[in-house]
Amino acid sequence: MDSLDINREYIELVKENEEAYFEDYKETVEKVKNSKAQYKGEPIPFLYHPMFFTEEDVENFKKIGKMIISIANKVTNRYVEDADFRKKFNFPRLMEELILVDNGYDINVPIGRFDIFYGGNDNFKFCELNTDGSSAMNEDNTLAEILLETKSMKDFSKKYSFSLFELFDSWVRESISIYKQFNPNNPSPNVAIVDFVESGTPNEFEEFKKAYERNGYNCIIVDPRDLNYRDGGLYYKDYKIDLVYRRIVTFELIEKADEIPDFIEAYKNKAMCTIGSLRSQVVHNKIIFKILHDEDTLELLSEEEREFVKKHIPYTGLFKGDEKIFEHVLKNKDKYIMKPYDLNASRGVFAGRDLTYEEWKERLEKVWDKDYIYQEFVNPYTREFVVFKDEGVGKEEFGTITGLFMYNEELAGLYTRAGKYSLISAASEYYTLPNLLVRW
After folding, report:
1. Is 378 in contact with 117 (CB distance < 8 Å)?
2. What DSSP string describes 72-111?
3. For burial by CB atoms within 10 Å, which of 75, 146, 406, 431 has the most?
4. pTM beyond 0.70
5. Which letter does DSSP use for residue 46 in this model?
6. Are residues 360 and 399 in the same domain?
7. Judgement on whether residues 63 and 178 belong to the same structural domain of the protein
8. Are residues 25 and 107 in the same domain?
9. Phi, psi angle pair for 283, to nearest 5°
């Protein structure tokens, strides 16, 4: 039995007692509205239907995560050691300088969310490597807790057992473990969750703050503009910060560098342990998808890793240079999706199959030679899900994308979105599906 079999069983269960589950669905909608599952002040869109995964799936995710971390480490280490290799990335001078700062521990990517289109077993392709300000832990855990209390899941639990992937206390444990490498002599570091107030996800930050506090650590949420570097330490008022959980995305840190000179100076001087360090930017920037396919990069990897890249990393090119590239992308509209090097939340992303030829050409002209990649378009794998409508319960097919949360280089949990459009993100209509591990 696999996750698709379990998924079909759930649909059959709901359809057998549509009226009762529809009433329960309406109550669940109200629970979500009044929960912490919010994005930009609005309830997270969801389905009355979790994303089911088996232990076999989870073992597969662990292998995928281990492989991409191994590749990321080799590429990052080469970046640090080889000035010529660094030229491939063409990062701003300050970004490069900060990446080269020794982070004080032996992890290049302490936290990440690696988004994949997953069809089971070896059928998957990467969409993004989010190693910088990785988010959405709160969405998954809050929705999972709510859906586990629904009538349908309680009834389904008579046959199967379900568990969520806890993402807050587990991060506290792993981040403290990393901090002990940085400073083994301080058993109780003062923690700060740091992001620009206009960019942060306050509900999620509050949950992480609570997790640190219930595990015995002081923790604050603070804007980097409010920090001071003095007497060799980084402070918020009189609070000396030992451990920074960095949620600032790197491109914004660089854009606003003149607003946060104290934070940057403290970082350069290792006045605090910063998790994650700026080194995570090496594989976060979408140019990595092109660089991974370069011959001199493939030479760094084992034969198994090279095959992994060729099979699971979509072909990617830089949208600049020779006009032949422009003409090729223009003429192959449905084959490609366009992405800026380093923006989050799908900003600036567009797919040829969503546009007319004229719209495609106009968009391409605007982004030509403007730090964009063109990438092989990947059709998401689909599943059927329960959908409630005025006329009753139906089932619809949605494409899905699943993020693998990696904490301290180990799989910690999952984040799944579902949608019907080329972009399965906040940039289009989508749903967040809580991820549940199924046992029987």
Report:
1. yes
2. HHHHHHHHHH-HHHHTTT---HHHHHHHTS--SSS-S-SE
3. 406
4. yes
5. B
6. no
7. yes
8. yes
9. -105, -5
